[in-house]
Amino acid sequence: MASGGLQLLGFVMAFLGWIGIIISTAMPQWKMASYAGDNIVTAQALYEGLWMSCAMQSTGQIQCKVYDSLLKLESSLQATRALMVASILLGLVGVFVAVTGMKCMKCMEDDQVKKMRMAVFGGVIFVISGLAALVATSWYGNRVARAFYDPFTPVNTRFEFGSALFIGWAASSLAILGGSFLCCSCPRRETSYPPTRGYPKNASSTGKDYV
């Protein structure tokens, strides 16, 4: 029962992490204008994401523009996109594989060992998915930080971490932790001992005493 509860907890955490990775990928707030200069502009807030850039007016109206051409994007941004999309696809595969190996499901009930191995395999896929998202978000965040502290970057064009990055970090950590819990449900090998051999019983005494 304890392993079943750990398995269920791991799946829920990994699934929530996968949903968070999807949300982080779709959000445009990967980085936001810092307004660190002397002339603070409060009329609008600028955001940039993996797919579009947005500007929010002081009235609350948001205007977004999708990036025009894929070839005009930086190679690092394209790599970040690829890692996040790969993370989402891996998480989708991990969901189906892990569900098949869950103890609460009726699939593969005739072979419990294979069923538990499916859950472990799903956990491994979730860990890889979380690592891909963690690498993508950390790489993007490192680029934002380096550009912010670069003295050659104009003050009015500096950006800070956006909310999508924090969601991505938390989601990838959940996916890795949940996948690790699923991997802990690995079936243990039971040591098979040879059957004990009985010792021959002493011959029953015939009642005769020998001198």
From TrEMBL:
Transmembrane segments: 7-27, 79-99, 119-141, 161-184
Subcellular location: Cell junction, Tight junction; Cell membrane
Annotated GO MF terms: structural molecule activity
InterPro entries in the cross-refs: Claudin, Claudin1, Claudin_CS, PMP22/EMP/MP20/Claudin
Top-level taxon of the source organism: Eukaryota
Primary location class: other
Keyword Cell membrane tagged: yes
Record Gene3D superfamilies: 1.20.140.150
GO CC entries: bicellular tight junction; plasma membrane
Pfam families to which the protein is assigned, alphabetical: PMP22_Claudin
Keywords: Cell junction, Cell membrane, Membrane, Tight junction, Transmembrane, Transmembrane helix
Membrane topology: Multi-pass membrane protein
Similarity comment text for this entry: Belongs to the claudin family.
Function description: Claudins function as major constituents of the tight junction complexes that regulate the permeability of epithelia.
Matches recorded under PANTHER family: CLAUDIN
Protein name per Swiss-Prot or TrEMBL: Claudin
Source lineage: Eukaryota, Metazoa, Chordata, Craniata, Vertebrata
